[in-house]
Amino acid sequence: MPISEAHAGRSYPPTPTYEVSALKIAEFAAALGDENPAYYGDAPVAPPTFVGVVAAAAWESMFTDPELGLELRRIVHGDQRFTYHRPLRAGDRVTATLTIDKVRVRGGAEIISSEVDVHDETGELTCTAAATLVHTREAA
């Protein structure tokens, strides 16, 4: 059965713990071409979109769920929003948990709204990454 409105509310287990490191923050900032000194040095904070690295593992759990029948090659990323409660910092150990908020089926397209909550090892919510994905089915 492909993904449908009935899958709204489905949550996946937390991802394995990801340790945010100064090196990974610096590499990410360099890939963006962002030379902001806050992203470098001994105690950097992560650029706002760095949380996508952590969220990717949570999205993978949805993409590989055999019940949903999603094909990554048929997904377009429609929207992305990050709500921060505090910045990610070097030394943070975080996990990410994905919940499917809403699924709308329109013709051959499934519009999937999801949220990934990122918590540190104390359980503090650091960020929520909300995404809207559009998945198309091959014509029957």
Descriptive tags:
140 residues; five-stranded antiparallel β-sheet; alpha+beta; Thiol Ester Dehydrase, Chain A; single chain; 36% strand
Number of strands: 5
User: How much is the average pLDDT?
Assistant: 95
Through-space gap between termini: 14 Å
The CATH superfamily name is: Hotdog Thioesterase
What percent of residues adopt helix (DSSP H or I)?
Answer: 10-25%
Structural class: alpha+beta
Walk me through this protein's architecture.
The chain has 140 residues and is of the alpha+beta class. The chain is 17% helix and 36% strand. The protein contains two helices and five strands. The longest helix has 13 residues, at 51-63. It starts with 17 loop residues before the first strand and ends with a strand.
